[in-house]
Amino acid sequence: MSAVSTGVSAVSMAGALNRALADALAADPSVLVFGEDVGALGGVFRVTDGLASRFGEQRVFDTPLAESGIVGTAIGMAMNGLRPVVEMQFDAFAYPAFEQITSHLAKLRNRTRGRVSLPVVIRVPYGGGIGGVEHHCDSSEAYYTHTPGLRVVTPGTPDDAYRLLRDSIDSPDPVIFLEPKRRYWAKGELSVDSVDSVDSVDSRDSIGFDRALVRRAGRDVTLIAYGPMVATALETAEAAVEEGWDVEVVDLRSLSPFDDETVCASVRRTGRAVVVHEASGFGGYGAEVVARVTERCFHHLHAPVLRVTGFDIPYPPPKLEEHHLPSVDRILDAIARLQWDDEVVGSYGA
Amino acid sequence: MARTRVPERTLLPSDEPLSLLRKDGSPVDDSPLAMPDDDVLVELHRRMVVGRRFDTQATALTRQGRLAVYPSSRGQEACEVGSVLALRPDDWLFPTYRDCVALVTRGVDPAETLTLLQGGWHLGYDPYEHRVGPQCTPLATNTLHAVGFAHAARLKGEDTAALVLLGDGATSEGDTHEALNFAGVWKAPVVFLVQNNGYAISVPMSKQNAAPSLAHKGIGYGVPSVLVDGNDVAAVYAVVREAVLSGGPTLIEALTYRIEAHTNADDATRYRTSDEVAAWLDRDPVDRLEAYLVSRGLLDNARRAAVAAEAEEFAASVRAKMNADVVPSPDDLFEHVYASTPRHLREQAAALREELA
Questions:
Q1: Number of domains in chain A
Q2: Cβ <8 Å between B339 and A104
Q3: Structural domain contains residue A13
Q4: Per the residue annotation, which of B22, B130, B154, B271 is the catalytic one?
């Protein structure tokens, strides 16, 4: 995974993230990578594979097993001019760091009126779909997006994983970088030349750090997805062709700040929208998206904006998770309920 | 990375707190600590007197409604002043909300020190100006910032130590233990100074801790630990100085006492007796040093009067600064949430401006 290749090539998301870390470490001596098992092992998902041997244990190192300690010391290091990129091993294992993230990482710039800048990236493998046991499959994005001062981003493709991680490491703001672990091994094209990219921000700046992206253009309905659900939404769009629906897929990429412009432009074109995420629906991130879209696009809407989300339950055990996770069929069902014949949506429940 | 096994006994604190001056100001004969130089002692005295006057002035400002709240450190001046003066110019201080005296001793403007408590903003000073981290209100979170900061200095090849202040209650927080462990593993140049003033607001040590002392908690993390008389400024200065120069981590427990209540909003009579307070007034850190300085001929009435006058002048300047009405701009609400203000915050700022127009 640490092999250098150039030009357009097929790479897994884990490989793309690995390359982004390597390129960032090579480009900027103040970048550090640390966390649990990120050194010799290369991370439990191998995202940091080969980095410790290439860059040395002063820059890529294992820490004691303590998440608040990892984030708290990262804050101190950033105050002293370094750019830490730290790994939380799994979504639910980041919770011990919650106080450091919400009370300090997110607020120190504001508390100090901009005098203290904390360019810290917290990488969090998140979401389900890998048969993980309890506490290994949470979708924790809403905890972070509800905290002003944090940027929250999540890639849906290997190419975007590279771009977003490089952008996150370059960002002067703290970034929660949510990695859809079920997509780690899915391959895609990486259009960034890893030699050129060492110090060329321009080569990957064609999208914009906090912009959403239309992944597939369509006329009839907008599917709004992010992270692990981007691939599911694209699959749904293909299946919808048979039903006669031309589906547009918007990949949010940056959950906070939110790109109202791209999302609303799409919904105004199509007049219908479904928001999809793995996390529970109640008080979830999708509720914010639905509210924003409704407030801004009301007169363009032919139907209420619907959500397809996980149930409002603790994440289920592996043998039941398929029932919990949004599926192509469930998303198609939601699309079918978008008042194509001026039906009353209330009869379908929520 | 090979590690040398350190014999456990070198990590243990002494059975009795280390000291240089007895309660009456007479020197301890067989102290393992080195008495600070005369000019240092004289400066420690001056800063304690000024610091105490600042503290009483700040408490008075709460009664005039100029401060929303003030947590006094009266009685703890030996810790506040002794530890800060033991720092070198490039070292950093990571204080808590009770350490305003430490801040002004470090040179932070008193009005900027009190910004948090005055309510104009969450922090008034630039941390980089005097190398003072933001005052920490959640307990013990600053311990990890100090460890990270000090480790970063080591990685950058800089000889910088971090002094983190915490109280007895904060030693029960998980972050304290994670910080001691990280500092031990990294051998980070961090001094943890626990000001054990007997109470976490109202909860006494007996309900906080079962170890022989708080200093003992360093042993489990491989961090050398020291127990010191926290009302003996000469001893506090000596142990912090030694810890700073050691280049590695040290846990220091300083036994002291908070003479005032937790804050002006607290009623200390509900959880402690006046006899207990009186006993600690008898161990006053300023009186103790004054007695020693007089015995050594380092403090006469003229110098005492000059220091008192300086303290009054300082208090007057604090009053003058704090009596000025500061009206923060509502626009400040939206600044510095991010490095550049995102669109949704610009829209909210505009909406508020319109509402106020």
A1: 2
A2: no
A3: yes
A4: B271
